[in-house]
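Write out this protein's structure.
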Amino acid sequence: MRRLRACLGAAAAVGLAAAGTTALVAGSASGATSALSNRWYAAAPYLMPLDNDPPDPATIMDATGLKAFQLAFVLAPNGGGCSPTWGGTAAVSSDTAVQSVVNTIRAKGGDVSVSIGGYGGTKLGQVCSDAAATAAAYQQVITKYGLHAIDFDLEEPEYENTAAIKNEIGAAKILQQNNPGLYVSVTTAGTADGTGWFGKQMLLEAKSQGFTPNNFSIMPFDGGFNGAASQTSALTNFNQILQSTFGWDQATAYAHEGFSGMNGRSDAGEFFTQTDFQTVLDYATSHNMDRFTFWSLNRDRQCTPADNGGRTSGTCSSVAQNSWDFAKYSVKFAGATPPSSTPTPTPTPPSTGCKPAWSSTAVYTVGNEVSYNNHNWKAKWWTQNETPVASDWGVWQDEGAC
């Protein structure tokens, strides 16, 4: 259920048919390129552009051939209101940092989708007055970045809120109608049975509104899963849920089904290796599924030897790997051929010197380093007066003794 996405991440004109066309054209002012094929948006892995030690997308593109990125997450403002922000804190309207990331990707012939929601935080569907207002907020994001794709990540706690899900599904339908050609995915929690009660209620809401996205994707992790076999079983079960809900045959259901995995060690301590990803990829392609993605590129690199396997991190996978190993499976799903090998990076030796002492009154932002109790610590996001302590969910990353 992607706890790390939230816990480590902090992160009326829409009613006119012409609004969508304007949105997709207006993006040229923001560096938009022509749309990629839908297969690339379906293969785009998640990237937090402002948190969790964001990797350089250009480096990933050069190393893997990846062209599309799923930027996460757009939320309602932490202080309240129906306007889009990155992670609840950075207003989309005044953003330049994410725009710079988008420009970098597009300059190399790639493109982005934007994901709204995620685990935790306040979603726009929870605070906007209705579906039209929710859609108007998301339209600002589409117009700002000239988007050709968007992902509705509907999970805890939002998908337990009937009114919020009605707003989100209604907004997705409006955006789909008003932005011709917009690729829309809907992502929700996975269980061994496919998806749980709230996920099924979300599907019923979509059916009641007559809304069909490009795909409904499940996240088969953090739910007692153990490797690829348990994930493909869940995907088979979810396919049956799609059939029974929408009256589709098996092939049609698979054509509207997606997989969203978690590379390496999950929040619940499950492990998904490169072999598992290959197995699920084979399943997805052999069944003509519409989407194959994962959480996240921020984690698609090896941890230090001391951390490997021992904890779940927002910035590394906790399994043995070369950098960007998992991104290559997305490239394969898109129908491209990634480079055959990536040299294993040489780990940077840990520093033995202590960083400046932590201060309870100082403000720290992502990447700032301090020392406390003879250890160096790195901030994962903005913080003030939070004592450095080792925790999977805390703001501070322990960099070892000094």
